[in-house]
Design goal:
By secondary structure, the protein is an alpha+beta fold. It has one domain: Lipopolysaccharide (LPS) transport protein A like domain (lipopolysaccharide transport protein A fold, Sandwich). The chain is 16% helix and 44% strand. The chain has helices at 9-34, 54-60, and strands at 63-64, 67-71, 77-81, 84-87, 93-103, 109-120, 125-136, 141-150, 156-158, 162-166, 169-173, 175-180, 187-192, 196-199. Strands 1, 2, 3, 4, 5, 6, 7, 8, 9, 10, 11, 12, 13 and 14 form a 14-stranded antiparallel sheet that branches. This is LPS export ABC transporter periplasmic protein LptC. The chain crosses the membrane at residues 21-38. Keywords: Membrane, Transmembrane, Transmembrane helix.
Length: 206
Amino acid sequence: MARLVARSAKSYSRAVAWLKVILPLSAMGILSTLFLLSRNHDPNAELPYSNIDLRDAARSERVTKPTFSGTNETGDLIAFTADSARPDADHRQEAENVASEINLTSGETINFIGDHGIIDQSIDTATLLGGVVITSSTGYRIRTEALDSGMREVHAESKGPIKGDGPPGTFSAGRMVLTSDPATGDAYLVFTEGVKLVYDPDKPQE
């Protein structure tokens, strides 16, 4: 950080006053790219993040414990959290230990977790990477290495093969897509490309 040399008490006070304005605004600019994405944002509601170290953000542009949450047009609640996030050279956000929770209007819940991820505001997408696990309240547990997830809609696609288990038994496929029906609020897991299923008749069926 460049050293400020005050030539007079007046210029020193002016510099301090500007710093008090610039540093918080700089930190808020970083946060806005990651968190303030909801179309239905309530201006009177509390900002959806907490426990942010502004001194750390001012030094390294890293935000700790960021949280984004919002409701889409059909009423589904979509939330993302991470241990930390910082901008990369392409104006995206690099996040560590990313988790997502989707609460559907139908009552079902879907969760994603990944070792790290990339948040791209320009396309409203979060890419989870490394040991990604998808779970649902209906009993599915799916593993993959990379997953693209929408941040404003219930939609996700694996970027490679998946393995999992659920009510039908154990299964694998070359690709998985999560989508939803706006009319009913129901979510669907679609598996394609070399699907293999080992049926377990003892498992309860949904």
